Fold this protein.
Amino acid sequence: MQGKLQHIAARTRHLFRRIACIAACGSAVLLTACVSGTSADLACKNDSADNALSGDIKGNVVVPRNATCYMKANITGDVNAQDGARIYVLDGTHISGSFRAVGAALVRFNLDGASAAAAGRLGRAAPAKIFVGSNLVVKESRLIGESGIAATEIGGNLVILRNADGGASAGGGHASFSVCTPGMCRPDAAVTVRKSVKIRQNQIAVALNYTSIGADLKCASNDHAPVLMKAQPGAGRVAVKGRKSGQCEHMREVVMAPAPPAIAAPASAAATPKA
């Protein structure tokens, strides 16, 4: 009887070992699938507007470390910009998922087309809007130059969190983040955020205008309180359906300095009448 019980116990131990082995193997298979799925994300290294990432893209897109990416595409998944990446999201881009830039150097959503339109170089036409289905997040980035968004609709939240100045840009200016401000935007290229806007713990300057927010505007612990940037007194506004809180409860209005007048070129010697 005792021998029979020992035999049953041995078989039971063997069965448990097999179950553990199968479970471990299954986990390994799942882990491999997860890793291969991550490595299958499309890497964007298209470094000019003329060679922008385009077309219909199924799945996620990643902007690799220190890469430059111009995109004008229909993306069914998420977009993730890695450390040091510079990303230009051009007019008409559709991102069904979320956009996350963590540690990036530059993030520009429609700024180039919208700023050209604002300056009149595109006549009356505003750029086609960019669409992001979920959240748009720019965090823990050391930004260089002017980052920001214009002519964009965001289905989730806009989060600008713990971003720092990465140093002067080639043009000599320091980093900032604009949400549809004058010079970079105009009323018909406005920004729509369906949920909340959260601006927290930034060392860089953040300015807003021409923006519609479906829930709350929350600002806290920024080195510089976010401002409402206007081309002239009374022009533009930030419409908030929910609550304004923290540093954005009473936003300070800042009127942009007018551009200096153009200096006429001197008449050429050839144009001088002869005696």
Residues 23 and 29 are 10 Å apart (CA to CA). Residues 42-256 form one domain.
